[in-house]
Design a protein that fits this description.
heterotrimer, A alpha/beta (626), B alpha+beta (167), C alpha/beta (414), B: 167 residues, alpha+beta, Alpha-Beta Plaits, two-stranded antiparallel ribbon, C: 414 residues, alpha/beta, five-stranded parallel β-sheet, 8 helices, globular
């Protein structure tokens, strides 16, 4: 089928072409349309030189005009304003990830105390491993007793005033020593975020470098703190992922089923929805309405979470959330927190779709709010599923248009699963890296952004990397892009370079390893730390590199910051709002190498981005003498 | 001949965001992209200015390409001419930077490029369908229309106002 | 053979060319004949220092086809010096023997350098008064053969000539009788930033002295003797002591000459079908109403256009000019001087302000309610607005502080 040239330019995903064409037919606007209407975007914002931190302004620094203002009312230069804005973005991102982690600690606490409904401790081995890491006694204790102590210890990480965050000590000793030396070894997670808000208040920290260091500190508290807690406690409660086969893309919606989409980030809600959807009573009710069953699918990181633990299909990544509703086949779009477009409210009103918000933290205009609490989790989940089932009758089948596109995928390569796939030890991986069969390892993560042709940034980069024998670990929206492209299948090894192909084929693994949701980048850090420790070097010595080809969120800014703080060179595919400051630009792209052993680079062309990463990997290989 | 379009300003719509100034500077940079332009030396210059006056008026100012353009006649080196679309242009090669045009422009919209020692002004973006400042304006304070259609629109909105006030 | 033209423009400078093109905008048919006594086609006279320095070539100089001078069909006669004018017969007589009849005539014969009579030896080779392209070419040639030039006079044109020679690598000494350079355009204390820039640029300036004699040998000039007995050895001398209007051919014609050719409010002379514009004409100041002769390019063009329109039958009032209206840049220091700027004598309200890199002097009338003059050095942004305020006699009450602070912009008039 032929589509408008403009539509083909928006994405590489055929399902998106179909749905955008459908949206145009129905005169429904999507994020792409709104992006076009937003153009040109404000140049001051793009350069990061506007400041609204006090009411003497808003101030903005003129990047060109000789007559224009060169300092804010308080005297802040472009360097100061850009640095303040950047670290506030980090604060936002670190807060989002970490609050997600806090919610998991809360669920674990409630479960350990027997106050939650429907939850249980599914991975006792991990529970004990973590307890030992925290110095919590395990011998002769029940899992609930251990879990209670672990939940309290994890909880305490947020409000801690002094000391260190336990999971940061997974990093190599050299890295921790460096953080201490730089004064960026984080204390309590909340404390570092609060300190950013304090420092960026009018008239506090006005040294761009000092500000950036605090930003890095808070980001470490995210990656090695809040995010790691989210990952680990999710595994304890819902099971540590193991490789599982599933399907992805909008074609996973079923014309003859009650379709429920879980969208957002935390598994706490979605796990219960998945459980409730299997309830025989509800299934038979669905059948009575004429549906053949209940089909739960996921979008965004919630999709990643339930896919890797239950094989629940993934309907798509961030930019497909509106398109899913436009299929006209969705009975309920159930959301919790993060990356949920407020456009879903008015959009759902164009269809029969019930847009159901569940978190007291995240309400939306046009949404039906069915608040979720652990105490009655399963019951509430059943009510929500019930609402979806009841809504099936309202579906107008003439309005339904589900694209047939769907792709098989293999997901769920947790750190433990990776080690298991390697035969219980990292040695085969290290050996493959040493011999050069695996040239290096890349972490490719991040969002979608209509500034970049949808999935093109992700796929263009990942395909180029595996072609050059770089093993890719993937999370978030990148993982979904790879899933849709078939790159998460062992068969995709055919697309890899000879070395990587032989390793993948020997182990039966895909060349791109799905490691989970965006908080699960902590898993990638754990793997890197383990490799560095095995080799007796720092992470910054490893032939590894990171990338966020289509990033857009504040979380991504925090991620990029902790990845660089951990010593990993990171390429961004969209330009961060810092170019208005020569100092901040210099620090991030050059000076950081002398400080934390890694820098950022910006490259919007995915093939060129891959070349930068490969060159970095080769340089590190040379330095390591392999 | 069709009447050429001009840049008109609706001052009541200007919110003072200065987006026009950035778009103008970028449109007159070598790279034509914001992220390229910020690294260029000499820094690209905007040819549109947004001034502020009491009590809180924001006024975008750009070359009017005057009918009897004083700058064109004052120029001592023949660097300023009017093209077939009525656009008054400064020929950078001919400009000697004597600033006579600056001295006679009653709008104050001719800039002095100190690094190159040349005068510069709005050229109505000859390579673009719509001048960059107009495209960039998020509030419609800058419009690109023929004089006839602009004044027609102004008249219409004035009569609407009148009808409204008369109930 | 009697030759005749509808419009006869006497003079190929700014006023003449502006008039010719203004006529063409209105009358596409009538013949226009423009006479210039120079060998070159009409050119942008202010550019001649650039011809000396080599920054411009001959081909960069000509007006036809450049800027607003694009309309064609103007017959230009070079080498045509008018010796006599007969208003009865409506005919001019040329030095080369030709004569041309006209229906309407414009006197735009411009001015020539004033040569001080009290300096001896000015007929030597290597003495110049830069006025024409021919002068510029010979100056450039002379500059190749010498290493030191002495400039007599501290006006704008002489400063520009001085910089052209500096650019060519000469050592240049400027003799200024006044206490400071640019005395016609500003008072000495207004010029300190410019003076600093001139000094830094390597121009040697001697104030309070004048030349008494130019000494020469077989190769022309070899020294200038000053009034204090000092002798400066040099290979060339350039005189910049102002100009006087070219009115000799009007003697006995009945055209009223009073310092320059007299004109009414519509640029017309006292005899029928004759007009005048430019350096040769008596202009008037729109603010004070004073009559005066100026040597300003901007005025020549404005008055020339006005005359051209009147000649073509579109009655147009001449708006007048400030006696002082200059913008330029010397030694990387831009400045603008306009209106009443000499305030030593008389009753004015003067507001001065200076920073490290800029200076301004705003002159208000005694009552302080009208702006009448301005000197801007360094930062000349929005200078045109002050010209507008002065010329339109705008009441300044609401914008006075903006004028004093140099924050005036057009938005204040919206």
């Amino acid at each position: 089928m032929a589509y408008d040239e403009k539509i083909l330019e928006k994405s590489i995903d055929p399902s998106v072409h179909k749905m955008l064409s459908r949206a145009a037919e129905l005169h429904i606007e999507t994020a792409w349309d709104r992006y076009e209407k937003m153009l040109p975007e404000c140049g001051f914002g793009e350069l990061g030189v506007c400041c609204r931190n006090c009411n003497m302004g808003p101030c903005r620094i003129s990047p060109f005009d000789d007559h224009g203002p060169k300092k804010g009312v308080c005297g802040a230069t472009a360097d100061i304003i850009v640095a303040r804005n950047l670290v506030r973005m980090i604060a936002g991102g670190a807060a989002a990830h970490s609050d997600h982690g806090r919610d998991l600690a809360h669920t674990l606490l409630m479960t350990a105390e027997g106050k939650s409904s429907g939850y249980e401790i599914k991975d006792e081995v991990k529970l004990k491993t973590l307890a030992v890491e925290y110095g919590i006694p395990v011998d002769g204790r029940t899992k609930e007793e251990i879990a209670l102590d672990l939940a309290k210890a994890a909880y305490a990480e947020f409000g801690k005033q002094e000391g260190f965050i336990q999971f940061t000590r997974r990093a190599p000793e050299k890295r921790v020593a460096l953080w201490k030396k730089l004064g960026i070894d984080p204390r309590g997670i909340d404390r570092e975020i609060v300190e950013i808000m304090h420092r960026t208040h009018i008239g506090v920290d006005n040294d761009p470098v000092n500000l950036i260091l605090q930003g890095l500190k808070a980001s470490i508290a995210d990656g090695w703190g809040g995010s790691a807690i989210a990952t680990e406690l999710s595994d304890v409660l819902f099971g540590t992922p193991v490789p599982v086969r599933s399907q992805s893309n909008l074609g996973v919606l079923k014309k003859d089923h009650v379709n429920i989409i879980v969208h957002g980030h935390e598994p706490v809600l979605s796990e219960m929805v998945v459980a409730a959807a299997g309830d025989p009573g509800l299934v038979s009710q669905a059948e009575k309405t004429g549906a053949k069953g209940i089909n739960v699918v996921g979008i965004c990181c919630t999709g990643n979470e339930v896919c890797m633990r239950h094989g629940i299909p993934m309907a798509g990544n961030f930019l497909q959330q509106e398109l899913a509703v436009i299929t006209g086949a969705v009975e309920a779009m159930i959301v919790d927190v993060q990356c949920i477009m407020p456009s879903l409210g008015p959009l759902s009103e164009c269809f029969h779709t019930k847009f159901i918000s569940t978190s007291p933290k995240a309400k939306f205009p046009g949404a039906l709010h069915m608040e979720f609490h652990e105490e009655k989790a399963l019951g509430i989940a059943k009510e929500i599923v019930q609402a979806a089932v009841d809504n099936y009758r309202s579906r107008d089948q003439d309005k339904v248009m589900i694209p047939e596109d769907k792709t098989e995928c293999m997901v769920g390569f947790s750190t433990e699963a990776v080690v298991r796939a390697l035969g219980g030890t990292l040695d085969p991986l290290l050996e493959a890296v040493k011999t050069g069969k695996i040239r290096g390892i890349a972490g490719v993560v991040g969002c979608n952004n209509p500034k970049i042709k949808h999935d093109h940034g992700h796929i263009g980069l990942v395909e180029e990397l595996i072609k050059h024998d770089v093993l890719v670990t993937s999370t978030g929206c990148n993982a979904m892009a790879c899933a849709k492209r078939g790159l998460l299948l062992p068969e995709a090894a055919e697309q890899a370079g000879e070395g990587l192909k032989s390793v993948c084929q020997a182990l039966g693994i895909p060349p791109v390893l799905h490691m989970g949701s965006c908080v699960d980048i902590s898993r990638i850090l754990t793997v890197c730390a383990a490799i560095a420790n095995a080799l007796g070097v720092d992470i910054s010595d490893l032939p590894v590199a990171g990338a966020a080809p289509e990033w857009m969120s504040e979380k991504a800014v925090s991620i990029g910051s902790y990845v660089v703080s951990s010593g990993i060179f990171t390429v961004l595919g969209t330009v961060p709002p810092v170019l208005g400051s020569p100092v901040v630009t210099e620090v991030l792209t050059r000076t950081a190498n002398d400080v934390v052993g890694a820098t950022f680079a910006v490259e919007t062309d995915p093939v060129k981005a891959a070349a930068l990463m490969i060159a970095h990997i080769d340089a590190k290989r040379k330095a390591l003498g392999v | 001949m069709t009447q050429p379009k001009e840049i008109f300003v609706k001052t009541d719509r200007c919110v003072g965001c200065l987006s026009c100034t950035i778009a103008c500077a970028v449109a007159h940079s070598n790279s034509r992209t914001l992220f390229g332009a910020v690294f260029e030396k000499p820094v690209p210059k905007s040819r549109i200015y947004v001034e502020w006056s009491d009590p809180d008026k924001k006024i975008p100012l750009v070359c009017r390409h005057c009918e009897e353009a004083p700058c064109m006649f004052a120029c001592i080196s023949g660097a300023i001419h009017r093209d077939e679309n009525g656009v008054v242009l400064t020929d950078t090669d001919k400009c000697i930077g004597c600033w006579t045009c600056v001295m006679v422009c009653p709008y104050g919209v001719i800039g002095r490029h100190l690094e190159t020692h040349k005068a510069y002004r709005c050229d109505r973006c000859p390579d673009r369908d719509v001048p960059a400042c107009v495209s960039a304006c998020p509030t419609g304070a800058l419009v690109y229309e023929t004089a006839a259609s602009f004044s027609g629109a102004v008249r219409k909105s004035a009569s609407r106002e009148l009808i409204r006030s008369e109930g | 053979m009697e030759e005749s033209t509808r419009y006869l423009i006497a003079g190929g400078g700014a006023a003449g060319m502006a008039a010719a093109h203004a006529i063409r905008e209105i009358d596409q048919e009538g013949t226009i004949t423009l006479l210039t006594d120079e060998a070159d086609q009409p050119y942008f006279r202010p550019l001649i220092p650039f011809l000396v320095s080599g920054e411009k070539k001959d081909s960069d100089m000509f007006m036809a086809g450049s800027g607003p001078y694009k309309s064609g069909n103007v017959s230009v006669r070079t080498g045509s010096l008018i010796t006599w004018f007969d208003p009865e017969q409506k005919t001019v007589y040329l030095e080369n023997g030709g004569r041309i009849g006209y229906e309407k005539i414009l006197f735009a014969t411009g001015s020539r350098p004033y040569i001080p009579p009290d300096i001896e030896g000015l007929d030597a080779d290597g003495v110049f008064a830069l006025r024409t392209m021919a002068d510029a070419r010979s100056m450039a040639k002379r500059a190749e053969q010498t290493s030191h030039a002495v400039m007599l006079g501290g006006g704008v044109l002489n400063l520009k000539a001085a910089f052209a020679l500096l650019k060519k690598g000469l050592k240049v000494t400027l003799i200024v009788y006044s206490p400071e350079v640019l005395s016609q355009l500003m008072e000495p204390e207004d010029a300190f930033l410019i003076r600093k820039a001139l000094d830094q640029a390597g121009l040697k300036i001697i104030n309070g002295r004048s030349a008494e004699i130019v000494l020469s040998g077989k190769n022309g000039v070899d020294a200038v003797g000053l009034d204090n007995g000092r002798e400066l050895s040099c290979g060339m001398v350039c005189i910049g002591k102002g100009v006087s209007p070219n009115v000799h051919f009007l003697e006995g014609s009945g055209v009223i000459v009073d310092g320059g050719v007299a004109a009414d409010m519509y640029t017309a002379c006292n005899i029928k079908d004759a007009y005048t514009a430019g350096d040769v004409a008596v202009a008037y100041d729109p603010v004070s109403g004073d009559r005066m002769v100026t040597a300003l390019w901007t005025n020549a063009v404005e008055m020339g256009r006005c005359a051209g329109k009147n000649m073509a039958g579109v009655k147009t009032k001449y708006s007048g000019t400030f006696g002082i209206l200059n913008a330029t840049q010397v030694a990387d220091e831009p400045f603008v001087s306009m209106g009443t700027v000499h305030t030593k004598e008389g009753d004015f309200e003067v507001q001065r302000s200076s920073t490290a890199g800029s200076y301004r002097k705003m002159v208000f009338n005694a009552g302080g309610d009208r702006l009448i003059g301005a000197v801007l050095v360094g930062d000349i942004t929005n200078a045109g607005l002050y010209r507008y305020v002065i010329r339109e006699k705008k009441p300044v009450d609401r914008i006075k502080q903006n004028i004093i602070d140099h924050t005036l912009h057009y938005g204040h008039f919206v």
